[in-house]
Every structure is written in C-alpha cells, then in structure tokens.
From TrEMBL, chain A:
It comes from Actinoplanes xinjiangensis. This is STAS domain-containing protein. It comes from the Bacteria.
UniProtKB/TrEMBL annotation, chain B:
It catalyses: ATP + protein L-histidine = ADP + protein N-phospho-L-histidine. It comes from Actinoplanes xinjiangensis. Keywords: Kinase, Phosphoprotein, Transferase, Two-component regulatory system. This is histidine kinase. It is found in: Cell membrane. GO terms for molecular function: phosphorelay sensor kinase activity. Pfam families: CheW, H-kinase_dim, HATPase_c, Hpt. PANTHER family: CHEMOTAXIS PROTEIN CHEA (PTHR43395:SF1), SENSOR HISTIDINE KINASE CHEA (PTHR43395).
Length: 91, 787
C-alpha cells in the first residue's frame, strides 16, 4: 500500500499514483495536525503534490528519492526560493 | 478498436454528411431557421460525443463551430460565405482527423496546429474573445523569439548566474513552460512524472494557483499546477518527452543575451537580430522534417522546370507548399500565386521554420534534384486531411425498403418451399413413384434448412438488442458524473429487448440528450441530496420493454425533478406560451414544455448541455420515427421520461391459439399461463364466466364470441384457457386449441383492414398461413361491448 494513514501521521511509500490521490486528500481534509513522511516515497502523482501544497501538512521526514528531495521537498517545506512563491499567474 | 469509438466513427460519418449538406443548403437559402437548427444540432451532438474520447482538439474545434452556429441560430449573426467556408473547412479537417483515428486510433500529431488557425477564424466573427490559451500558443509560436515573461518564475539570482555561464561558454539552454490541462488526470497523465523524466533538469518552478480553493471546494482531480523548468536537454529530447501533450508546452531556447535582456527588463530584440534565440513550435519533428523536405523538393522542382501559372504542375506544387506550411504551423494563402511569389514564399518558410538538421536537408536536396513527380509532391506524408482516408469501418448502408423486400421474398420462399411436400405426396400417390417422392423430400429438407437460415440472416440484419443503444452509457455516465462531481449509479433493465435497427440507431441521440440532461440538471450534488434526505448516490435508470407494437424506453432519475412553475415562467419569458397558457397550463403539461424548440432553463451554457437544443432534439428525432415522448416529474423526487417508439419491423414472440379453426397470435409478453379446466369447474358470476385458480377468481372471455366467430366448446370436454395479464389484470381467454410459440415479424394492418384495431398486425407463418396478432386491450374492450 502506498499510503499508510494513521490518525495524524501518514507514510507515503513507493509510488503514489492517481488512485491514491482521493484517499490522501480525504485524510488531509480530516486530520487536524497532519504530518507526512516522504522518506520511502519514490514518486508523487501531481494530484498528491497538489494536495500537499494546498493542505501544507508538516513534512516529518525528507524523501530518499533524489528528484523529490531536490526539486519537490523545498516546495513543501516552505524554504522555497522566489521561483515558488505564491502569487499572480504568469502573464 | 474500442466498440464505443467504432460507433462514434460510424455516427460521425452521418453527422458530417448532415452538416455538409446543411451548410451547402444554407448558402442557397440563407437564414432558414430550420436548416440552421439542423446543422447546429448535428454540431452539438458531435461535440457531445467527441467529449467521450481523448480528442481535445476535436472537442475544441467543434465547440468553436458550435458557438458560431449558435450565434447564427439566435439571429445575432448572419451567416456569410466566408463563415460557411470556415465551417466547411473545419468539418473537412475533422473528417481527415477521423480517417486518421480510424487507422491509428488517435488524432494526427498536427491536429493542434491545424485546428488553431481555424478556431481563431471561427471565433473571429464572435469578437474572438474566447481564443484559448492553447490557440495563442500554437499560432504565435512563429513569432515568440525572446525570453518569455514566464521566465520570471525562476529565481533571478540563479538566472544571473546561468546567464554568466552561458555567456562564458557561448551556449544555450532550453526553458519549458508546461501548462497541463486541468482535466489531465483523467487521461492518466501525471505532469510531475513527465517533469521528472526531463534529463539534465536544472531548475524547476511550480506555479501554484493564485487563490487555492477552500478545502471543501477543492477537487483533487483538477490539475491546478503548472511547471516552469530549465534544462540542458536538447530540443529533440524535450519534443520527444512532451510528444503527447504538445499543446500544453512551450519550449524556448535562450542564450545569455536573451536572459540578461529579460533580467534587465529591456525590450526584446527583433527576430532577425536574435540570432540564437530560435523558437521551435512544438510540432512533431518528423512532420516538420517532412515539411521541410517537401519545401526543398518544391523549390528544386520550380528551379528546374519552367512552369507557368495555371499549369496543373504549378497547382500541385502550390498545394504541396501550402500543406507544408500548415504542417510547420504557419498557414499561408497561396491561391493564384505565380512561380516567383511561390519561390519567395518557400524561402520565407524555410527561413521561418527552425533549421532542419543539416544532414537531412542536404540529403534531401540532392535526392530531389531531379524534378519530383507532381503526384509525389502533392501526397505530403503526415498531411492530416488526407482525403484518401476512410472514416469508420466500411458499413454498407442499405435502404430499409430493400431489406423489407428481402424479408417478403424470404416469406414467399417459405411458402413455395412448403409446396414441395405436397408435390412429394402427389409423386407417390398420383404417379406411384416412391423413389421420386423421397428424393423430393430430401430436396425439401435441404431447401428448408437454407430458407430458415436465410430468414434468420435477414432478421439478424435488422434486429439488435437495446444493449447496443445502452452500451455507451456506463462510460458516459461515469465520465460526466466525475466531471460534475456527482455520485451516480446507472441501472439498465431490459437490455435484451430486441428492436429494429432503425429504432436502436435513432434512439442513440435522444438517449444521450436525456441522460445528459438528467446528469446535468436533474441530479443534485451529493451534499444537496443528503440535505434533502436522499441517499447520496443518485440512481439513473434506463429501462426498455416491448409493448405490443411498440418499444418503450424509459429514462428515470431520482433527482430534483422539474419545477413546473419555473418551466412555465421560462417558457413565457421565451415567448413559447401565451399569458393565458401561463395561467391555465396544468402541471403535467407544463413539464412537457421542455420539449418545445428553444427551451432551456439552465442559465449557464455548459460543456454538457443547456443550450436548449437537447429536449427539442429529442422530441424531433422521436417524432421523426413516429413515436412519442412524455415526461413526468415530481418536484424533489425525480424525473421520468418515456419514449414510445413504433415497432415497424420488430420480431414479436407470439403464442398461437386457434378459435373456430382460425389461428390467432397473442404476444407472449402478455401470456401468464395456459390451463385446461374441466367443464364442470367453470363458474358464472353476473353473466361473466369465471374460473377459480389458486383461490383467485379469473374472468374468462369467450374469444370466439368476442370476434364473432361460429364456435362453441364441445360439451363435457376440458376448456382450454389462456390466462393473460392486461393492465395488470388477469383475464382468461377461452380458446379452441393451443399451438406453439413463434417468432414473427409483425406488419401493421394496412389498407382495408387498417381500421381493425383489435389486431395489432399480421404475420406470415412459415407454412404460408397469415397469422392475425391480437391487440389484447382492444379485444377486451370488444368483449365487454359484445357482452
């Protein structure tokens, strides 16, 4: 199972596909102080990334996967550069 | 091929023909509202059906055409010949695409670019406001020449560093903007997955929506993100990677100058000056290579030959250049161009297109040094609208009358065949040749088998189960319900009811409209349903049942129902009913106002429905078949639409019984059981014969008396009673004898017998006898009158 959901913590394991997006979003909606571990996550579907960006759960551990660690994690932990600021749509 | 797609292609062919014919007639009779309506309806249906498949360009193009037609229909715009040309061109393009789809099951790679120009032209008379972002990208690629503004999403510090490095090494870098369609998740696309496959990814910017929807409104299946990325991967690699989403990406190649200019906010250089800022439109690179080859070929062919204007040779070169230009995304108008302008145009196109890989151009120009045969030039590979293609599988369309005639002939063959048995008897008895008799009988057996098979084959040609008409709905309902965010359970009943092919085919469009209407307007979102005390999952039922000489198809939902007051008010506002009618119309009549032309309660025109064309189209097509459509609705409880379609040539299973030596058929659907009752057990209650069956009193009607035939049951013999259920009442029919059940082809009563309501039709039995099939409701009425 790519998703291990507990009351306030979730482990994303392996490849999170579009099929898991709904479940993950549902969990993020209900969990009060969600914490997500990406350590064993190899890939996130865009929908899952989008949900994480919207609900901004605390990322409890960084992914081992290089792409996720370098390109995606900064977006989620808020230590993003100006490139990832929220703001106006590009022209 | 997916059966849905096959069906779509077959239907598309008809729709295209309909649109073409309608448009051509419109040119002759401009402003005929019925014609405009017809074309519009066809375009509307086309758009609707195309939404089922992953052909975004097709949906977009038909949507543009539909919008234009809608304006024409409403009288806000007069159709001129330019618009007709554009519309015809749009549908020609679609025809070409569908030919491609038939063989490859996908649109040609150039579809986006081909469509973009047309969409812009179609939208132009409407003020051009609705040109999609994609269209802009596709048409303007040829002129984007400098750092695009979206570069600002990447952080400036990094850009400065990169610009420095690029300047030192005098190299370039590719920047990609990837703007996934919001519904891309449904097409199993994962944009992030695509992005992570980009080789040598330097920088990734994720553009988040300016305002996120609230957690409750958030739809996890709508893609809200877009991506900006910088990479050292080559253009070819990027083109390959994004080959399935060419309309969603923009790729630019920038050098340090362009980036510096962007950073300092200086106005960009002109296209000629920006030497290294080459911008490639995202077109299939094979296609582009072909197009370039074609241009080179045309160039050399012009250089070698002295062609004159008007020459067929020149015309085919013009044709080839135009298609190459289209493939490169820079459509040009070359009608009537002479040799010099053509050469100039080719030069310009070769300059405008990104330089071909040197080797390719070299090879080709040597290869085509000799004049290329004109035909080869004209047959540009990759041209989307190749006229040679075939849309849909080859389906033979045969006039219904011809099949009817065939059926009649089969019937006569059966009769003639049965004559052989008499001949066999005669051979033995009159001519005393038993051998000959046996040989005739053998011959008969062979012919009998063939005749049976022939009959089955002809029936098979015409008969289809309703599951064919219902087959597309599970998918349609699933897709639409997800798009609308509603939970819907589709229930189908009576799919194995057989109906004439015509009926099934003609049912397709009305059913799609009805189902779409139910989904869009009738069924509420889950939260609204819960608030109304209903189960969150809505139920949509499609049911079919044979009813004597008709097929009844019912579409029902348990949605919010139709508000008769609102319908009346809307109809009044649209001028469909008078003020008097507004006051006096009963609720059930008011509900049926939705079938009037031009009626729509939806204030929003959506992708699904709501142009007021749906119900009108349903009524029109059902009435064309000679059927009727009625709607019943309870506000807050649901809507129930019933289509009643005649059964001109449907197979009916009948039970054959005889009275006074004459045989009659009774539809098996109505038959409950056959019983033999000892004469002594027949009772009589108030002049009515009755029989007690399992504690229930069943009235018995003497069929012979009702039909005024001379017959009386032999006293003391068991009575044969056929119990039927009519209007959910059990009634016994006293008959002389039961025979078998047969499948017959019911023909309506005609000519002198047309008045005879007690018969729903006649059928020819295999042995040459004509069977009268009873219309039980009328027979019961007749019996009541006789008694």
């Amino acid at each position: 199972m790519p998703l291990e959901l507990h009351e306030e913590t979730a482990n994303l394991v392996g490849v999170v596909t579009v099929d898991e997006v709904e479940q993950l979003t549902g969990w993020l909606r209900t969990a009060r102080r969600p914490k997500v571990s990406l350590r064993r996550c190899n890939h996130l579907h865009t929908g899952a990334l989008q949900a994480l960006l919207l609900f901004k759960p605390k990322i409890s551990s960084a992914p081992n996967d290089a792409f996720l660690a370098t390109q995606v994690l900064p977006l989620l932990t808020g230590s993003s550069g100006p490139a990832n600021k929220q703001g106006s749509d590009p022209p | 091929m997916n059966p849905l797609l096959a069906q779509f292609l077959a239907e598309a062919n008809d729709l295209l023909a309909q649109v073409d014919e309608g448009l051509l007639q419109l040119e002759r009779v401009p402003g005929d509202p019925e014609l405009v309506n017809e074309v519009f309806r066809a375009a509307h249906t086309f758009k609707g059906s195309s939404g089922l498949f992953d052909f975004p360009e097709l949906t977009r193009l038909t949507h543009a055409a539909e919008d234009l037609l809608d304006q024409v229909r409403s009288g806000r715009l007069a159709l001129d010949s330019g618009m007709t040309d554009d519309l015809l061109a749009a549908f020609d393009l679609i025809r070409g695409w569908l030919a491609h789809v038939t063989t490859h099951e996908r649109l040609p790679a150039s579809a986006g670019t081909d469509a973009a120009g047309l969409i812009t032209r179609l939208r132009a008379p409407l003020g051009g406001e609705a040109v999609t972002a994609v269209a802009t990208t596709a048409t303007s690629t040829a002129t984007i020449d400098v750092a695009p503004e979206w570069l600002a999403w990447l952080d400036a510090e990094w850009l400065t560093e990169t610009a420095g490095w690029l300047a030192t090494t005098s190299s370039t870098m590719r920047f990609v903007r990837y703007f996934p369609d919001s519904d891309c998740f449904f097409r199993a696309e994962d944009p992030l997955h695509l992005v992570r496959q980009v080789p040598a990814l330097e920088r990734l910017g994720v553009v988040q929506p300016r305002v996120w929807p609230g957690p409750d409104d958030y739809d996890e299946y709508v893609c809200l993100l877009s991506f900006i990325l910088a990479t050292r991967a080559s253009l070819g690699e990027l083109e390959y990677l994004f080959r399935y989403v060419p309309d969603q990406v923009q790729i630019v190649e920038l050098d340090s100058d362009a980036i510096t200019r962007h950073l300092s906010g200086e106005p960009p250089l002109q296209v000629e000056a920006a030497v290294t800022a080459a911008v490639m439109p995202m077109i299939d690179s094979d296609l582009a290579a072909d197009a370039r080859a074609l241009l080179h070929a045309a160039q050399s062919s012009l250089a070698v030959d002295d062609v004159v204007a008007g020459d067929t040779r020149l015309r085919s070169v013009v044709h080839a250049v135009a298609s190459a230009a289209r493939a490169l995304g820079v459509p040009v108008n070359l009608t009537g161009a002479d040799r010099a302008t053509l050469l100039a145009e080719i030069d310009r196109l070769l300059g405008a297109a990104a330089p071909a890989p040197a080797g390719v151009a070299e090879d080709l120009s040597t290869a085509v040094a000799a004049p290329v045969p004109a035909a080869a030039v004209a047959d540009a590979p990759g041209r989307a609208d190749d006229p040679g293609g075939q849309v849909g599988t080859r389906v033979l369309k045969v006039d219904q009358e011809k099949v009817d005639r065939l059926m009649e002939l089969v019937g006569e063959l059966n009769v003639a065949k049965n004559g052989l048995t008499f001949l066999a008897d005669a051979a033995e008895e009159e001519f005393g040749s038993r051998v000959l008799s046996r040989r005739i009988k053998d011959q008969y057996a062979g012919m009998h088998r063939i005749a049976e098979e022939l009959q089955a084959a002809v029936m098979d040609v015409r008969m289809l189960p309703l599951s064919v008409a219902f087959g597309r709905f599970p998918r349609l309902v699933r897709d639409l319900s997800r798009r609308l965010g509603k939970t819907i359970e589709l229930v189908t009943e009576g799919e194995d009811t057989m109906a004439d092919k015509d009926v099934i085919e003609a049912l397709g469009d009305p059913l799609v409209h009805l189902v779409r209407n139910s989904l869009d307007h009738g069924i509420e979102p889950s939260d609204e349903r819960i608030a109304a005390g209903k189960p969150p999952a809505a139920r949509l039922t499609l049911a079919a049942v044979a009813d004597g000489d008709a097929v009844i198809v019912e579409v029902s939902d348990d949605g919010r129902g139709v508000d008769p007051e609102r319908v009346k008010r809307k109809a009044y506002e649209k001028g469909l009913i008078s003020e008097e009618e507004l006051e006096t119309l009963s609720e059930s009549d008011a509900v049926n106002l939705v079938f009037r032309a031009g009626f729509s309660t939806a204030d929003q025109v959506s992708d699904l429905s709501g142009r007021g064309v749906g119900m009108d189209a349903v009524r029109a097509s059902v009435e064309k078949l000679g059927g009727s459509v009625t709607m019943r609705s309870k506000l807050g409880q649901g809507t129930f639409t019933r289509l009643r379609l005649p059964l001109s040539m449907a197979v009916t299973q009948v039970m054959v019984v005889s009275v006074a030596g004459q045989r009659f058929g009774i539809p098996v659907d109505l038959v409950v059981e056959t019983v033999r009752v000892p004469a002594g057990e027949m009772g009589r209650v108030l002049h009515q014969d009755v029989v007690m069956m399992r504690g229930e009193v069943v009235p018995v009607i003497d069929l012979a008396r009702a039909l005024d035939m001379p017959w009386a049951p032999t006293p003391g013999e068991d009575r044969r009673i056929l119990v039927v259920s009519v209007n959910s009442q059990r009634i016994g029919l006293l008959v002389e004898q039961f025979h078998r059940e047969v499948d017959v082809i019911l023909k309506p009563m005609e000519g002198l017998l047309a008045y005879a309501d007690e018969f729903s039709g006649t059928a020819l039995l295999g042995d040459g006898l004509v069977l009268l099939v009873l219309n039980m409701k009328e027979v019961l009425g007749l019996a009541a009158r006789v008694a």
